[in-house]
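SECTION: protein entry
WANTED: fold as tokens:
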Amino acid sequence: MKTYIFWFCLFTASAIEAQTISYEISFENAVHHEARINANFPNLKNYTVAFRMSRTSPGRYALHEFAKNVYDVKATNHKGKPLTISRPDPYQWLVSGHDGTINLSYTLFANRADGTYSQVDETHAHLNIPATFMYAPQLHERDIEITFKVRKDLKWKVATQLPLVSGTTYTAPNLSYFMDSPVEISDYGLREFETPRNGKNQKIRFVLHHNGTDQQLDAYFEKVKKIVMAEKRVFGELPDFDYGTYTFLACYVANASGDGMEHRNSTVLTSSRGLAEGGMEGNIGTVSHEFFHAWNVERIRPKSLEPFDFEKVNMSGALWFAEGFTSYYTNLLLCRAGIISPEKYVEGLTGTFNYVWNSPARELFNPIEMSYQAPFVDAATSIDPMNRENTFISYYSYGSMLGLALDLSLRQNDLNLDDFMTQVWQTYGKPEIPYTLLDLQKSLGQYAGNTFADDFFDKYIYKSGMPNYKRLFESVGVVLSQNIEEAYFGASASLNGDGNGTIVTHPKKGSPAYTAKLDNGDVITGINGSPFPDGQQFETFLKRFAVGDTLSVEFERFGVLKTASVVLEQNPEYGIHLMEKFDEQPNPSQLNNRKAWLKIE
């Protein structure tokens, strides 16, 4: 019997090894942003095998044509004999005539370090897997091994959520996990700590590629730890991370682009700001946002994102919750962790509040439909102009304001959003059951009552109503106000280099500029008979006028001189401040509500 088990295990191990896809990537020409990839696909049955570059990337909601950066593609069989390659479309290569094995090789050009793309140069190899590796869709359940041929002359090390096999070889259980596992290869710094979960410790690793000092990394890591623990308190526990580890992959260097991208057991954090150049404060919000995704998105996951499609986008109507509620918690948790002050947090709500609730786009789309716009706006590229000022509100911003309203509304009933998120976590996230919008509504009904839930969804999710923020803010000692004497134009203009001003935004629908039929691109040559205010911000110039004043605007459009009369209206923007800023003191109830909300003493 023991002999049988021994031979069975040996046979099983050999069978798995025979099925394993192997990749190797090297960086000899990193100075010119090239990587060379070699891949081995064994035990193939079909005469012709399709190999693709992904068109999407986990965490993104738009198309990204990664195939455009692949060239010098070659294929051989087990004996090294060249195989026939054909291109049926821009995204794939068909390889025929193999002997059961295909060895594939190609060169990748990569020069953008963010959460979507890859970058190879002599500072690092920053790899987003879908932007880097070809794959065979029909082999998506096979094990994968990847060996990184690191540049030892540059002191490179590998950091990734993938489990280590040995040396610089890592493994993935299938294609989906592989695609969801970004890699940072550089001379990075590493800090880590452990925190208990269900009787065992989980490791939190912070990898930072930067040009700063160890002392700066130490100080920043203390903030990271505070964020981790503040977010853990929302849900009562950390997720059960695969292989017991979560890895932050931070890259704060001049050649990186600002971004953050969540993955199942890791996140990418990129910024051109180093810790000494404003990054200590400027980058920390992305840490908060992306780690919250370890619960909300990665495990509390919309059914509309499952299974993730690498050939076309998954359209989801739940991004107002998945991204928006995460955005609500981003700065709230910085406040709870003591990284920003209550005053800074509350006043920081102002820009998003005005962007959402003063947008004419609410007449066109509710939060669900705004979420549907993601394929067109989530780092998507196009060359034709869009009327986004009038037709779109970011689901990040819209959802964050709805999260704020729901939290403060629940607190008026001695409930709170933390406990609701915990309920959703226990029901859908922890057992990893993808949810629908109806599931969210039912969950809110179970937590706060069906009447409350139905009212919230009917008014603010299925429709575009605005909650009564004045009353909600008053409950926590916050003042929502407007300056009724400040004049409003409705579009932004800036100097164009010739002493004139160019309107640089689409006028907001219904605004004075819109009503006067001014448009984006119009060149303002004069106002009330005088030249455009040279050397002065247009917004500053407008402050000399009062509500109801008329501006005679001379402008040029398509080479034709025109004149428009713009009647200034009251600025619709709000200010949000603690009551104390106006020398008012919150009463005991307001103060207690604020302390419970912001978790402050």
